[in-house]
Amino acid sequence: MFSIFQVLTGLFFVNTQLNYSDSLPKKIGQGLETWSINNPSEKVFLHTDKSSYLAGENIWYKAYVTLESKPSILSKIVYIDLVDENGKVVDKQMRPVTSGASAGDIVIPKDLPTGNYSINAYTLWMLNYQPFIFKKLLKIYNYDFKITDVKKATSDFVVDFFPEGGEMVEGLKSNVAFYAVNKKGIPLDLKGTITDQSGKAITVISTTNLGYGKFEITPAPNEILTATITANGVEKKFTLPSANKEGITLKVNNTNANMVFVKVDRNVAIQSTYNNVLVVAQLHGTLAFMGMVNFAENATGMAIPKKNLQPGIMQITAFDTNGNPLAERLAFINTFQLPDVSLHTDTVSLQTRGKNKFTVNLSNFSSPSVSISITDAELSGKIGTEDNILSNLLLTSDLKGYIHQPGYYLKNKNAATMEHLDLLMLTHGWRRFNWEEIINNKQGTLKYPVESGISISGKATVPVSTKTIAGGYVDIITKGEDSTTILSKALVNGKGEFFVDDLNFKQKATVYLQGTKTSNQNANVDIILNKNYIDTLKRSVYIPTVDAEILNDQGSSKVKQLALFQEEVSKNKMYTLENVKVTTRKISRIDSLNANYTGSLFQTGQSLEITSGHYLSIWQFLREQVSGLVVEGDLIDPNVYFSRFSGLTAPTVAVEGEDGVNQAGGMESNGITYFLNEINVSKDVINTIHPTDIALIKVFKGPEGTALGLNEGGIALYTKKGIPDKSRTGEKGFFKETKIGYSVTREFYNPNYAVISNATIKDNRQTLYWNGNAKLDKTGITTILFFNNDITKKYKIIIQGIDKKGSIIFKEQIIE
After folding, report:
1. Dihedral (CA of 663, 667, 670, 676) sign
2. How far apart are CA 309 and CA 441, in angstroms?
3. CA-based nearest residue to 498, from 529, 519, 454
């Protein structure tokens, strides 16, 4: 490697004052500028509450969508899907993006088998650059799992070698990086020897960090190099990439805080070959440096100033005079600032069900969007290793392939950490574009558009034909499962196409469409609807590639985790009965509705179904069917309260319009908490729902609502799944199709043991606190209140987010 002294004394320093009118530099500069304008780089980072789950649990998450390092103003929809090892999409969600973020959850199916899963997050626009969507490996456990030796891994392994710049050249000294993993994709340590074809040892090699290492070598003419590697007690041989007889090598020294030093060497029979080599560095699609190497003048080295460069991955490429890339190397610009987040542990209690109070001060940030998770530290991944918002947005979102423990590389700026980060740059590819297209100003075809909201599009055609009508309009009625009704009118253009966007409905909706031809309004018109992306998503190529159980191994704590899993799933364990006659009773309709609609916390209480169509409002039905429920005044917006409860002798009298909060912090009115599809809503929302749209009603009185944190009681309404009742809409003659809408957001259940004294049920919660949208007071402080479970002895808190200026927020801490 060349020395800093050589560069600074100008022994081979490049004159970077290029004539921008020169053909190649001009094409590259203009091509990069055009590409950057036409290809804005969106990224998504997903903060999940943990990485291991039980079937039936919730995956709580917050999606951060960025554009050019700030909250995105481009896409207004983010997609999240859960994919198994075979590529089957287990769950898929579409969520609205507000100020570059969206929080939600995925309910893991109770019958989902134990396995590795990938949770993926992206915008539709990002699918134009598919290798760079967000992917996170999860482990999900069910009754079928077995406690095995979690430290045991396959003894077989592979080693890949990466010459710096891309290729070795005979007679030129080169750095060669390598990366070793076992057959399960986990990095491993190794030692070995590089020998020539005669068996002579050339150099000794070993890994320095997480399966990575490098060595320096000068290949001789026609030399065949072999690496004899020993790992996990197994010896294997690998043939190194062959060296070219002619060509150039590209070397980069990135250890200086202010400069990146680059040197180009050549080995050619005719000296005029590659006499001039253009070196270009680009960062985030923007030209960062350009310099011409002149071997005739011995000017073969250059220094790229880091001042004013944004942090991230810089791509350094050497071109010949015809614009052909000869060598390429990545270098990480570490000008980032480590986030400074103030966390104060006001009250810490590790006692069983003890109360905790923490405060987070974010007054140094400008309008931050923040998510906070607190989990059992003994059952979570190691601190400082998992991908976080800092390591993702600056590093892993721009690298292809699996990165092991990515959080390690940006946890500090120590020399050893930066050296290991540089090894990562030597071994992972990066390419969002093709240089030939950049130089020739060719813009690739973009398949996926930017989405500003849910849209409906299609063609209006002559009946039983693909011939489109020229001009007209389409009336559209969108009826959602959440009782939303949207009326739209879309114009039909000369090609028979129509489009309407910015629709806002949740869960699913039935869309009714009727086309009208301008020239003959009485003519029949057929409608051909285009499929939205979310409606067609069934399989994915973004599958888990690594065994998460080994990945998250923590020795005894992992065994403890699996034991807890076994204890939990045994409650719902499936058994195979042989030679046993089982007699069952026919399930009632109410029991069937409970099974199909309600979650575990909502299965108690009174269950009601509206079987008659004569009711004008929900309140008329409830007044007749629920004893102790008072419904006074106008049946469209009455005053509603409970007059008595089972076991109570004194009546409760409510004041009309008295709103408040329940024990769980949810909205209530006159002491009653209202839910629509298990989402806490105001009473005004219930007023708007028609009885024929309701599948099931649950009523909770007094103690029945304790688990839900209710004060005096609650009423939960469930809307019918599938097509809404047609008798009220008059859609006769309309074409109809079901569309998926935005997923609803559930509220994280945070038990308040100050008022709940039930100690008969063991509390094994692994996620003790989750807040996807932490609210700050006027001083920039948010308060965290939560109660411990029955087993946790130390907490792991993670605070992540970004403010409107693009400043990254990240804090990870163990509290014990």
Report:
1. negative
2. 25
3. 529
What distance in Å separates the CA atoms of residue 317 and residue 282, rounded to the nearest whole number? 9
Residue 292 forms beta bridges with which residues? Answer: 278
pLDDT in tens, 253-266: 999 999 999 999 99
C-beta of residue 629 within 8 angstroms of C-beta of residue 686: no
* Token pair in block for residue 49: 């509450």
Rounded Cα–Cα distance for residues 435 and 431 (Å)? 9
CA distances in angstroms from 588 to 503, 592, 604, 655, 691, listed in the order given:
38, 6, 16, 39, 21
Distance CA(753)–CA(588), nearest Å, equals 36
Separation CA 539–CA 519 (nearest Å): 43
- Give every residue of the chain whose pLDDT is below 50, as ranges: 1-13, 20-21, 149-151, 553-556, 559, 572-584, 645-657, 722-732
**What is the full DSSP assignment across 379-446?**
GSPPTTTS--HHHHHHTGGG--S--SSGGGGGS---HHHHHHHHHHHHHS---SS-HHHHHTTPPPPP
The sign of the CA dihedral 565, 568, 574, 578 is: positive
**Cα–Cα distance list, 341 to 532, 621, 683 (Å):** 41, 53, 39
Report pLDDT digits (tens) over 269-328.
877 788 889 999 999 989 999 999 988 888 889 999 999 999 999 999 999 988 999 999
Task: Please check whether residue 276 is in contact with residue 268, taking contact to mean a CB–CB distance below 8 angstroms.
Answer: no
Alpha helices for 415-553 (secondary structure H): 415-427, 435-439, 533-536, 548-551
CA–CA separation, 169 and 425 (whole Å) = 20
485 to 35, 473, 507, 690: CA distances (angstroms): 42, 19, 13, 12
Tens-digit pLDDT profile for residues 581-594: 434 456 788 888 88
**CA neighbor of 341 nearest in space, from 324, 326, 359:** 359
Q: Residues with Cβ < 8 Å from 656, sequence gap 6 or more?
A: 632, 639, 670
Show the 3-state SS of 57-90: CEEEEEEEEEECCEECCCCCEEEEEEECCCCEEE
Minimal CA–CA distance to 178: which of 202, 205, 212?
212
- Measured between its terminal Cα atoms, the distance across the chain in Å is 47
Task: Tell me what pLDDT residue 539 has.
Answer: 95
Residue 618 host element (H or E)? helix 618-625
Structure tokens at 684: 């005004």
Q: In this structure, which amino acid lies at residue 574?
A: M
At 565, which amino acid appears? F
Residue 13 backbone dihedrals phi, psi, to 5 degrees:
-80, 135
Tell me what percent of the chain is helix, strand and coil, each rounded to the nearest 5: 15, 40, 45
The Cα–Cα gap between 311 and 306 comes to: 9
